[in-house]
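call fold(seq) -> tokens
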Amino acid sequence: MERLNLPFIAQRRNECKLTLQEMAEALGFRNASTYLKYEKGAYDFKANHLPVLAKKLRCGMLDLFIKMVC
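ret:
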């Protein structure tokens, strides 16, 4: 099972100089605090969030996941 790489998401947001509020608005949330709960893992990102995240973070959708080694 694939897992989202939340530290990567936070790092890319910072590298791209995007605020929590900008990410919140892109995903349709009202508050930066709501987005932060997703980024910290309190809530799970939904499938429809992934293309938006990838576009805002200027990365591929596969980059959002932890590379699992078997």
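The chain has one domain: 6-63.
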